[in-house]
Write a structure and sequence with these properties.
48% of the residues lie in helices and 5% in strands. It is mainly α. It has 2 domains: 8-100, Glutaredoxin, CATH 3.40.30; 113-252, Glutathione S-transferase Yfyf (Class Pi), Chain A, domain 2. It has a 3-stranded mixed β-sheet. Helix 2 (29-40) runs antiparallel to helix 9 (191-199) and helix 9 crosses helix 12 (239-252). The longest helix has 27 residues, at 152-178.
Length: 264
């Protein structure tokens, strides 16, 4: 499938529609999760190019300078809606998607406040600081790991923290199944299901019918698959985790994922 991307400046200049920044061919987890949320909410998305980290070899300038000028941050993804301020934090992006999504789409934020507490709590240990993705990033030294606080000490404790999150999710799914629900909260899918199913791709080997292989993401896919074999993580990865991930992605999200880039 051909995928078109507009420039960051074009996205910022538009005054109508939803524009989200992506890196072609890469399933950057937070961008992929937001895309899945928008898919569930039946929100048309215009894809914009997210600038890469580092310095432009020709100009010597930070490649993310313009993004910082527009949004006061550089994280992926940035979400633009109409002429409103850009949103770069998952909880604000989710709130916006829930607000502007189709009236016929599932409600990803429970109206029941007790369930809402449960849903946001689960999301926070997956998406938030010192959560699943945070610790996955600091397992290895590199520009991204350094951005999120890589040290030898932090890296050494990361697998155990990841395993703790996986175990928590697994116990939650088991408890929900005992009450007849395949979802993490209540009786219907919520943002917790969408975010967990997407983010858990970083600690599982996902088949190409869900996540196609591209020139750009093949190294990342191998890294994610290798994470699933780290002893502390492998010990807690259950069939229940895998089944939930596949069910949510294949039932509610666009699969195979549409990434752009150069398919292999």
């Amino acid at each position: 499938m051909t995928v078109s991307f507009i420039t960051l400046d074009e996205a910022a200049a538009m005054t109508e529609g939803v524009r989200i920044t992506f890196i072609p061919g890469i399933q950057a987890l937070y961008a992929e999760a937001l895309k899945n949320v928008c898919f569930v909410k039946e929100i048309p998305v215009i894809r914009a190019l997210h600038p890469l980290m580092g310095v432009d070899k020709k100009t010597g300038e930070d490649r993310q300078k313009r993004l910082y000028e527009l949004t006061s941050q550089t994280s992926l993804p940035t979400m633009f809606f109409n002429d409103e301020r850009p949103r770069s934090v998952w909880i604000e992006q989710l709130a916006l998607a829930e607000k502007i999504g189709s009236a016929n789409s599932p409600s990803l934020i429970p109206t029941d406040f007790e369930q809402r507490v449960e849903m946001f709590g689960l999301c926070s240990v997956v998406l938030g600081e010192d959560g699943l993705v945070w610790n996955m990033r600091i397992m290895n030294d590199g520009p991204l790991g350094r951005k999120y606080g890589y040290t030898d000490a932090a890296s050494s404790t990361a697998p155990a923290k990841i395993a703790e999150v996986i175990g928590l999710i697994d116990r939650r799914l088991q408890k929900q199944a005992e009450h007849g629900s395949p979802y993490l909260v209540g009786e219907t899918p919520t943002a917790a299901d969408i975010y967990w199913a997407t983010m858990s791709m970083c600690i599982t080997a996902v088949p190409p019918e869900i996540m196609p292989v591209t020139e750009q993401n093949q190294g990342m896919l191998k890294f994610f698959a290798a994470n699933s074999k780290i002893p502390a993580i492998a010990e807690v990865l259950s069939h229940r985790i895998e089944e939930h991930q596949r069910h949510i992605l294949q039932t509610f999200c666009e699969t195979p994922a549409v990434l752009g880039g150069d398919p292999i």
